[in-house]
Amino acid sequence: MPDEKNAPGALAPLATQQHGEAAFFDVDNTLMKGASLFHVARKMYERKAFTLSQAAGFAWKQVKFILRGENMDDVHAVRDSALTLAAGITVEDIKVLGEEVYDEMIESRIWPGAKALADQHLRVGRKVWLVTATPIEVASVIASRLGLNGALGTVGEIEDGTYTGRLVGDILHGPAKAIAVQLVAEAEGLELQRCWAYSDSYNDIPLLTLVGHPVAINPDNRLRRHAREHNWPVYDFRSGRRAATFGLKAATLGGAVYGLWRGFARFRGPRL
User: Fold this and answer.
1) Of 3, 26, 80, 204, which is the active-site residue?
2) Which of 3, 28, 74, 236 is catalytic?
3) For the chain, first and last CA: distance in Å?
4) Containing domain of residue 166, as a range?
5) Torsional sign, CA 124, 227, 79, 116
6) Hey, is 70 helix, strand or coil?
7) How far apart are CA 257 and CA 263, in angstroms?
8) What pLDDT score was predicted for residue 245?
9) Residue 183 vs residues 177, 187, 191: alpha-carbon distances, Å
10) Torsions phi, psi of 267, nearest 5?
11) What are the beta bridge partners of residue 90?
12) HSE, side-chain direction, 13 A CA sphere, residue 9
């Protein structure tokens, strides 16, 4: 199988459009470092949408996500908290918040190597989509700013221009991503065996096995093993991964929690 790389693989730059082909990128820990929803929560905290205690809960889940990857219990807990907090917020406010979150917190966390892969697909004429549990409003901002073709994300129910605190369907995660991509493929006339998918998480195996070209980026341990067993390409853009032993993780955990706490604490006042 291909060796793990610190730079994207070669995709020959062609001028013609590749009909029937597309690439689908997960966002959290694949396209960017950490969880995008955490930064949405931090921005909402700046605006006094919830308490410091609630903010600390989001921060702790972000630390665990960076160190060990996705955990379904944490994903569902963040989802439920976010839905509750979003109830009554207007669609326009969320759109503005998404722009601010990208400019202030997400742009600097985009993995250059992952972006280069997306850019290579665009250069050869393939459409590139984001597929993420992140709210569709934020996912759409990320896709637009990166010059991608579109985004699939979690959709909140809207009534009279405000969010109700309920979902339309379910959170776009795990098997739901595969279903969403299948629907896009049918609508766009894509041949999935000629498409690519990129993810860091074992939970996205349904998406990765749906396409002909699955790729693991910054994979968690289970996905890394699965990728090796199935001869999938693996790209790791994290520096010093091999030095990140259990002891080192334990030693840095306290500092990470403190840094995230301080990050929230800096924004105790509203910024409207």
Assistant:
1) 26
2) 28
3) 51
4) 22-238+247-265
5) negative
6) coil
7) 10
8) 32
9) 10, 6, 12
10) -115, 50
11) 162
12) 17
For this structure, is 220 an active site residue? Answer: no
Quickly count: other Cβ atoms within 10 Å of residue 148's Cβ: 23
User: Rounded CA gap, 253 and 249, in Å?
Assistant: 6
- Whether residue 3 is contained in a domain is answered as no
Residue 186 located in a structural domain: yes
Examine residue 16 and state whether it is found in any structural domain, yes or no. no
Paired tokens of 129 = 């989509």
Strand-strand pairing, 22-25 and 196-199? parallel
The CATH number given to whatever domain includes residue 56 is 3.40.50.1000
Catalytic annotation present for 170 = no
Cβ atoms 234, 218 nearer than 8 A: no
127-135, strands of its sheet edge to edge:
150-154, 127-135, 22-25, 196-199, 213-217, 234-235
In a domain, 99, yes or no: yes
Tokens for 140, please give them: 């759409």
Tracing tokens 């597309």 back to the chain, one arrives at: 22
pTM (predicted TM-score): 0.73
Q: Could you tell me the two tokens for 102?
A: 């990208």
Q: pLDDT tens digits for 61-117?
A: 544 544 555 555 555 555 555 555 566 688 888 888 889 989 998 999 999 999 999
pLDDT in tens, 136-194: 888 999 999 999 999 999 888 888 888 887 778 778 888 999 999 999 999 999 999 99
Whether the CA torsion 97, 101, 103, 107 is positive or negative: it is negative
Is residue 185 within 8 Å of 164, Cβ to Cβ?
A: no
25's tokens: 């990128």
Task: Count how many domains the chain has.
Answer: 1
